Amino acid sequence: MNAILPDVSLSETATLPAALDWVGMQHIDLPLRLGEGDLGGLLPASADVQVDLPAATAKGIHMSRLYQLLDRLGTDAPLTPERLRLLLIEMVSSHRSCDSRAARLRLDFALLVRRPALVTAELSGWKRYPVRLDASWVAGVFQLNARVEITYSSTCPCSASLSRQLIERAFLEEHGAATQLDPATVAGWLRRHASLATPHSQRSLAQVRVGIPLGAADLGLLPLIERCEKALGTPVQTAVKRADEQAFAALNGSNLMFVEDAARRLLVALRDSYQDVSIHVRHLESLHPHDAAAWAGTTN
After folding, report:
1. DSSP output for 18-49
2. Backbone CA torsion sign across 152, 156, 157, 160
3. What's the CA gap between 15 and 110, in Å, rounded?
């Protein structure tokens, strides 16, 4: 049937000859299977895929070939760095008639991971982690980068210090003349007045991009996420009861951080184990209508 249908990409040449850096498709819907930990099910994803077009007179590439190759990626086996490398090589090979020598692929999806409550036994909920994979095959070299986004809580050290000063002043105004106070009196005063000033805290976002080492058996997304959350110390919670909320408040109180602190923690936690670490953190300020932000790493 196809033999009698016209194909102008083969029968015609470009009227304005020029090589093109990349040609392909964006926002292709497809499922992915990761196979890491308990994430063996299918995940919805969006893909961008392109090859280069150095043949200056070629009318166009064969997008259906790219689509068909990409369509095999999702369901038959777990996604691995090696599968991505072989896919890109196949994409280049499928475009020999266009003199293509390079291919690239971007995958956007999100992991859903079940996380336990801090205190309450058998209480847990799902947390979403957006992920972006960028893979390329250029001049015979394969590169793969993973970017994960982690949501955490940050409490401002400066605001905490100012709040403590106000509480101290209020206590001295009421009890400064006393030469002796029993613990019950102090405890009662704190119960009534210790929150007369509270430090500002906010939901915060960390985007961490790392190079996946050549020869890696899997993507290692969960270990990367867990190392980042450990470094930050106060990842946001899912299902909570009052005891969990209190434990989270205690964590924040003992984990004060500026945006600079968060960026440095992540950099130190990752730079010895991953290639090409790049970090962008944002504290979505509750004090200001703008964000505080910091960048760190080899590619900012």
Report:
1. --EEEEEEEEEEEEEE--STT--SEEEEEEEE
2. negative
3. 43
Distance CA 98, CA 51 (A): 10
Q: Of 252, 39, 219, 221, which Cα lies nearest the Cα of 126?
A: 39
Identify the residue whose tokens are 């058996």.
217
CA–CA dist 158, 199 (Å, integer): 8
Closest to 74 in 3D by CA, of 66, 83, 85: 83
Give the containing element (helix H, strand E) for 243. Answer: helix 242-253
Please state, for a pLDDT cut of 90, what percent of the chain lies above it: 67
State the distance between the two ends of the chain, measured CA to CA, in whole angstroms: 51
Q: Please, how many CA atoms are within 13 Å of residue 101, restricted to the half-sphere of its CB?
A: 10
Q: What is the pLDDT of residues 241-286, one digit of tens each?
A: 999 999 999 999 999 999 999 999 999 999 999 989 999 999 999 9
Q: Average pLDDT, stretch 91-116?
A: 94
- C-alpha distances out from residue 260 to 64, 107, 199, 225, 285, Å: 47, 30, 18, 19, 14
Q: What is the pTM of this model?
A: 0.89
Sign of CA dihedral 220, 226, 232, 237: positive
CB 137 within 8 A of CB 88: yes
Q: Which residues are within 8 A (CB) of 126 and not within 5 positions of it... i.e. 6 or more apart?
A: 112, 113, 114, 115, 238
